[in-house]
């Protein structure tokens, strides 16, 4: 089992065996306290006891640090003190709900139940949902140990419910594997149209279920040759007892030493016959002849091939019989193991990702942007790095090189924490290891994109309790920019209409230069923010820009106002305050309503929803246009539902989607590299859209055919 | 993943279905499965025609078209056969099927030899005849299945007996050497051979034995052989049979079956691997799928697990073992039947599933393991065959191949499983000459018998 880490679970196993007199070989190696995270507050339990493994899920609350921003009370204060920050930041412990997934061998069930019992501090839970064949067998044990009532659920009903849930909600949960294709994996973005499909669940044996609707499904067949066969027969053949070790053996083996291949039967003639000599004519066919010794590795590989092929074939026959073209494979036998995957040629549930997965924010469903032209075909990412070796190499190196800086930033963000350096180092190790794994196996964690690299980094930071390393930086920048706001607006207002439109766009773009990456910029800002902003504008590429549909945009502005604009903001500070808000203000003045969407949680120096609320409030205090728009709800601030520096338009907060529909948004503005270039560059919308960014990465700029600080200004109108 | 996609890699291999009787699963992906089965053309037409349809043409429409276009070539063939009959080939008459594990040889012994002929018969020919017909074992591994001998057969106007001989493929070099020693090449006979080994050993036949092989498509031979053997019966008895009450040792009966309406027929050939063919008429059939889990897998795994050395020994051990100690049954998990899905408690939930546990591994005997291996492989073949029968809408399934030789356990299990899971819709049929049909087909090709 590929539990992260290399812990030993011997202690647990020792006490666990005995009662049944039937212990499975150990395969899980992790101490329980590492496995059962956040157990003390577990709220709901569900347990699935299969033929060999027990899968436990529990919903518990977790405490983790979050950075909160809170506005000072400004009532009664008319003048601004120059050195006072615009708001205060506090790191708080927040309690959120999390779903935990754990898997262990049935042998350990007693030990694990004991552990759960000892650590379950405060739970109101009275019932445990149990499924799987073992639920019947272990019912009494569970009731006795946990003092919980066992509520038996039908195993298949649970399986289907779970499968529907993940297929709909977890992006890249399913993927298609095709051996000779490049890339070998294609991950599916999730969308609601998942039915009908065939679910092939590979546990000890194999169950094949036809799923027609959310709650209508039918067992159509199965096979006794499954994961248990691999494990059991593998243990007999190789004397290797652990499931994981068997898989590792298999990955090193040569099945052609054990299997009789077509070329063994046909000699060299398979080529002239147009046959692939590598086809297996008879699994284990060679072991039938001489009294020859066969290596463990080769036998394990042959066994894996045999079983995977067999399952794939049965699945195929069933799919054909029921005229289904979607088959999902799941179950512990899959586990993201490359050899298994290569063999089955399948689309599967990427359950391996769930070994220790924790899902947050389950209570806020994410939905598609109603304005997407064709939601099923929408792919957020511009470049699939699994597809593009050159780009992959570049970005992996890029993220490696940036790691030191991120670690430093993380430590600096928590000056009062004694263990910040230690945690930051752990973060470094974890993220570094992930990057190295990705170099070897680009598919290791699902699809690989710049977005996934960025998101993974944020997740790792969070995991080691660095909820918002940029909070202080953002606070300072927001303060500085707010002080400049009146001056910027005054100078814009002094311009003629046409001049002003260009200045506004340049402002948006210049603001976007202020990624925290641009270190030189922040130094300048400290001394003279206004100068900094002007300096940034000068750095911008002169028109014509790399992608330049500004004239078309200007032409459009001469026409009737948009009804409602949805704007996805990027950075804190200069960007949101001096770039986005003046632009928003202009739209408001034109009679266009504005929905300003910011991230729900922190990512880099991106402005968060809660920061945007404070910023808007402060600007409203200075500017009557924004003030009245907020009051009259012509300017609405919403959260995206995401904590990513990128943007997935198919997974947005439900409230945002509802608002877009309600207000009839007819313009979408997407700002910044992460949201408009790495993602959504090719996104097709049903309404007008404006994608703008400054390319602040020399390599990417070159790839796009431009230079550093090239400007992307992409205004698109959907075809009639 | 569409079912069509799965099959695609196989189709790209062009004449891939020649992998046939030994079955084919790809190393990397499941290629043997799926609906790739393509329509087969009779050998002659395929060989002579440049307009062989695209290998991927498995659509119903394509089949109909070709069916219609058949009358012409068949008539031509018949004429040619008429003329050839007058010039029947010289003795000896052999048909050879060189499989992955076993070589199957059929030999026609003419019994109507006239004194004149006897006199003319060259020494080498006589020695072959005497050697083959007066022995029941050849060397240490060659065996003549005397009980299968077909007596008083008329072939090409000659009366005689048909002998069935087998030996392991790894002794092929010795066989070729014998041909050289007995000076076969001087007989100017043609060796009609099928099976993968016809290709593998072609060069050896030529360089060592000075013998030219006539290589034949193994599925063509298989079908031809089955139909012919069924038509001549088994020395007055029925060739085809089935089991009544297969699950009940007391009441189980082997009963003759009259295959008077053979089509459509699902033909499951279990050799080292498994090939499954859907046969619609003598000339119209397709390979539906195959699996690499066949007789070779059973014997191979048994060798590894029990240290046995012969197929007979493996079967003998299996007959004494108890697979329920090795397999995890539905009742082991659910305590009884799993009613929601109508799964009986005795059904195997996980083959070798109990062997995940150390204690149980230590508690099983070699016989138990041999039995479990046999049950696993047999059930799997039955399950795939059943799915194919459903997909092809065929309800009679004939199991052939040497895996079934002296293998009553497997045959009864196949019969029972097919009946049980299809609720009586499917019938499992067997044939006395199990593994020899390819070789018979090769002999018929030699004699140009359509």
Describe it for me?
With 720 residues, chain A is an alpha/beta fold. Chain A has 4 domains: 25-63 and 88-153, Nucleotidyltransferase, domain 5; 199-258 and 294-352, 2-Layer Sandwich (Nucleotidyltransferase, domain 5); 384-464, AF1104-like (Up-down Bundle), CATH 1.20.1700; 470-716, 3-Layer(aba) Sandwich (Rossmann fold), CATH 3.40.50.10880. Chain A contains 25 helices and 24 strands. In chain A, the strands form 5 sheets. Chain A has a 7-stranded mixed β-sheet, sandwiched between helices. A 7-stranded mixed β-sheet of chain A has the order 17-24-23-22-18-19-20, with helices on both faces. Chain A is elongated. Chain B has 3 domains: 87-232 and 438-447, Nucleotidyltransferase, domain 5, CATH 3.30.420.510; 240-322 and 365-431, 2-Layer Sandwich (Nucleotidyltransferase, domain 5); 327-363, no CATH class. Chain B contains 17 helices and 18 strands. Chain B has an 8-stranded mixed β-sheet, with helices on both faces. In chain B, strands 2, 3, 4, 5, 6, 7, 8 and 9 form an 8-stranded mixed β-sheet that branches. Chains A and B meet through helix 4, strand 10, helix 7, strand 11 and helix 9 of A and helix 1, helix 8, helix 11, helix 13 and strand 16 of B.
List keywords for this structure.
heterodimer, A: 720 residues, alpha/beta, Nucleotidyltransferase, domain 5, AF1104-like, 4 domains, 7-stranded mixed beta sheet, 25 helices, 24 strands, elongated, disordered N terminus, B: 450 residues, alpha+beta, 3 domains, 8-stranded mixed beta sheet, 17 helices, transferase (chain B), nucleotide-binding (chain B), phosphoprotein (chain B), ATPase_NBD (chain B)
Question: In one word, what is the shape of chain A?
Answer: elongated
Largest sheet of chain B: 8 strands, mixed
Question: Under the CATH scheme, which architecture of the largest domain in chain A would be assigned?
Answer: 3-Layer(aba) Sandwich
- Quote the average pLDDT of chain B: 81
Which chain pair has the greatest contact?
A: A-B, 95 and 95 residues
The CATH C-level class name of the largest domain in chain B? Alpha Beta
Radius of gyration of chain A: 29 Å
Number of strands of chain A: 24
Distance between the termini of chain B: 42 Å
**What's the name of the CATH homologous superfamily of the largest domain in chain A?**
Uncharacterised protein PF01937, DUF89, domain 3
CATH topology term of the largest domain in chain B? Nucleotidyltransferase, domain 5
Number of helices of chain B: 17
Note the total helix count of chain A: 25
Uncertain residue ranges of chain B: 1-73
Task: Give the overall pLDDT of chain A as a whole number.
Answer: 75
Spatial order of strands in the largest sheet of chain B: 1-14-13-12-17-18-10-11
Radius of gyration of chain B equals: 23 Å
Main beta sheet of chain A: 7 strands, mixed
> How much of the sequence of chain B is in beta strands?
15-25%
Count of spatially separate domains of chain B? 3
**Low-confidence regions of chain A:** 1-35, 75-80, 170-192, 335-364, 516-522
Protein name (chain A): 4'-phosphopantetheine phosphatase
Organism (chain A): Cebus imitator (Panamanian white-faced capuchin)
Main location (chain A): cytoplasm
GO cellular component, one term (chain A): nucleus
């Amino acid at each position: 089992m590929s539990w992260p880490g290399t812990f030993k679970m011997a202690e647990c196993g020792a006490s666990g065996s005995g009662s049944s007199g039937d212990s499975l070989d150990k395969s899980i190696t992790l101490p329980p306290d590492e496995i059962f995270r956040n157990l003390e507050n577990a709220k709901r339990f569900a347990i699935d006891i299969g033929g060999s493994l027990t899968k436990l899920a529990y919903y518990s609350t977790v405490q983790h640090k979050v950075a909160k921003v809170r506005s000072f009370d400004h009532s009664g204060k008319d003048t601004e003190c120059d050195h006072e920050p615009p708001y205060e930041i506090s790191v708080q412990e927040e309690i959120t709900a999390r779903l935990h997934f754990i898997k262990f061998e049935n042998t350990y069930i007693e030990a694990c139940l004991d552990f759960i019992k000892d650590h379950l501090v405060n739970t109101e839970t009275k019932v445990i949902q149990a499924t799987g064949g073992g639920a019947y067998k272990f019912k009494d044990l569970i009731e006795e140990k946990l003092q919980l009532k066992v509520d038996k659920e039908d195993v298949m009903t649970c399986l289907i419910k779970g499968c529907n849930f993940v297929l709909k909600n977890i992006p890249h949960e399913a993927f298609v594997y095709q051996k000779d294709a490049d890339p070998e994996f294609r991950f599916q973005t999730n969308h609601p149209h998942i039915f009908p499909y065939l679910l092939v669940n590979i546990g000890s044996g194999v169950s094949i279920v036809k799923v027609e609707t959310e709650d209508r499904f039918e067992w159509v067949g199965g096979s006794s040759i499954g994961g248990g066969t691999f494990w059991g027969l593998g243990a007999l053949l190789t004397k290797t007892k652990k499931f994981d070790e068997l898989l590792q053996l298999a990955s090193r083996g040569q099945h052609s030493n054990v299997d009789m291949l077509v070329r063994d039967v046909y000699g060299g003639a398979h080529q002239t016959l147009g046959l692939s000599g590598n086809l297996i004519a008879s699994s284990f066919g060679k072991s039938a002849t001489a009294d020859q010794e066969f290596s463990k590795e080769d036998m394990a590989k042959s066994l894996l091939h045999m079983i995977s092929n067999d399952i794939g074939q049965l699945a195929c026959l069933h799919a054909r019989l029921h005229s289904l073209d979607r088959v999902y494979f799941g179950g512990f036998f899959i586990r993201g193991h490359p050899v298994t995957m290569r063999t089955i040629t399948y689309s599967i549930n990427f359950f391996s990702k769930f070994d220790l997965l924790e899902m947050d924010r389950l209570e806020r469903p994410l939905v598609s942007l109603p304005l997407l032209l064709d939601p099923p075909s929408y792919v957020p990412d511009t470049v699939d790095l699994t597809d593009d070796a050159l780009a992959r190499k570049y970005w992996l190196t890029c993220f490696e090189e940036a790691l030191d800086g991120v670690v430093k930033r993380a430590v600096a963000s928590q000056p009062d924490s004694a263990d910040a350096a230690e945690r930051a180092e752990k973060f470094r190790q974890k993220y570094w290891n992930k990057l190295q794994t990705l170099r070897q196996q680009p598919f290791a964690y699902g699809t690989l994109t710049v977005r996934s690299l960025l998101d993974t980094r944020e997740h790792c930071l969070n995991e080691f309790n660095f909820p918002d390393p940029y909070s202080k930086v953002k606070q300072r920048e927001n303060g500085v920019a707010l002080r400049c706001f009146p001056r910027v607006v005054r100078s814009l207002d002094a311009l003629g209409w046409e001049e002003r439109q260009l200045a506004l766009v340049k402002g948006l773009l210049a603001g976007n230069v202020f990624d925290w990456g641009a270190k030189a910029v922040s130094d300048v800002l400290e001394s003279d923010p206004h100068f900094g902003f002007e300096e940034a504008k000068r750095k911008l590429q002169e028109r014509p820009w790399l992608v330049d549909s500004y004239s078309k945009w200007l032409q459009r502005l001469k026409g009737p106002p948009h009804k409602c604009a949805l704007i996805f903001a990027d950075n804190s500070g200069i960007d949101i305050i001096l770039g986005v808000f003046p632009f928003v203000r202009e739209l408001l003045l034109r009679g266009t309503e504005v929905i300003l969407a910011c991230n729900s949680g922190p990512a880099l120096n991106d402005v968060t929803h809660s920061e945007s609320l404070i910023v808007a409030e402060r600007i409203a205090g200075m500017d009557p246009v924004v003030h009245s728009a907020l009051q009259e709800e012509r300017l609405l601030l919403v959260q995206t539902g995401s904590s990513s520096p990128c943007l997935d338009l198919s997974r947005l907060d439900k409230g945002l989607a509802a608002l877009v529909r309600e207000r009839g948004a007819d313009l979408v503005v997407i700002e910044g590299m992460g949201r408009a270039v790495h993602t959504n560059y090719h996104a097709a919308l049903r309404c007008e859209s404006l994608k703008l960014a400054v390319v602040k990465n020399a390599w990417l700029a070159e790839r796009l055919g431009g230079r550093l600080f090239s400007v992307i200004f992409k205004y698109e109108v959907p075809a009639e | 993943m569409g079912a069509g996609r799965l099959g695609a890699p196989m189709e790209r291999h062009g004449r891939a279905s020649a992998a046939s009787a030994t079955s084919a699963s790809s190393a990397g992906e499941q290629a043997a499965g799926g609906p790739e089965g393509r329509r087969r053309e009779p050998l002659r037409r395929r060989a002579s025609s440049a307009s062989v349809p695209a290998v991927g043409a498995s659509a119903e429409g394509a089949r109909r078209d070709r069916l219609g276009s058949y009358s012409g070539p068949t008539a031509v063939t018949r004429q040619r056969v008429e003329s050839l009959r007058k010039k029947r080939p010289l003795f000896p008459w052999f048909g050879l099927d060189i499989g992955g594990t076993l070589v199957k040889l059929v030999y026609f012994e003419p019994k109507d030899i006239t004194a004149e002929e006897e006199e003319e018969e060259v020494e080498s020919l006589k020695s072959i005849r005497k050697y083959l017909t007066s022995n029941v074992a050849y060397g240490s591994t060659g065996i003549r299945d005397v009980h299968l001998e077909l007596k008083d057969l008329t072939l090409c106007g000659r009366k005689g007996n048909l002998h069935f001989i087998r030996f392991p493929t790894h002794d092929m070099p010795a066989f070729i050497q014998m041909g050289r020693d007995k000076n076969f090449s001087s007989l100017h006979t043609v060796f009609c051979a099928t099976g993968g080994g016809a290709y593998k050993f072609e060069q050896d036949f030529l360089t060592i034995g000075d013998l030219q092989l006539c290589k034949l498509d193994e599925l063509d031979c298989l079908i031809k052989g089955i139909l012919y053997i069924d038509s001549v019966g088994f020395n007055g008895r029925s060739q085809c049979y089935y089991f009544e009450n297969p699950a009940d040792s007391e009441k189980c009966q082997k009963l003759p079956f009259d295959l008077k309406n053979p089509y459509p027929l699902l033909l499951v050939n279990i050799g080292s691997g498994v090939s499954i063919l859907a046969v619609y008429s003598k000339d119209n059939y397709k390979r539906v799928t195959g699996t690499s889990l066949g007789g070779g897998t059973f014997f191979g795994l048994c060798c590894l697990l029990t240290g046995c050395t012969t197929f007979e020994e493996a079967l003998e051990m299996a007959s004494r073992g108890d697979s329920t100690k090795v397999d995890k049954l539905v009742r082991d998990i659910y305590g009884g039947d799993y009613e929601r899905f109508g799964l009986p408690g005795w059904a195997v939930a996980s083959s070798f599933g109990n062997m995940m546990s150390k204690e149980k591994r230590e508690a099983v005997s070699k016989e138990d393991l041999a039995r479990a291996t046999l049950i696993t492989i047999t059930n799997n073949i039955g399950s795939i065959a059943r799915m194919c029968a459903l997909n092809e809408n065929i309800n009679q399934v004939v199991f052939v191949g040497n895996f079934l030789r002296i293998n009553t356990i497997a045959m009864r299990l196949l019969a029972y499983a097919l009946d049980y899971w299809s609720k009586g819709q499917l019938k499992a049929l067997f044939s006395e000459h199990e593994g020899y049909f390819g070789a018979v087909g090769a002999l018929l090709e030699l004699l140009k018998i359509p």
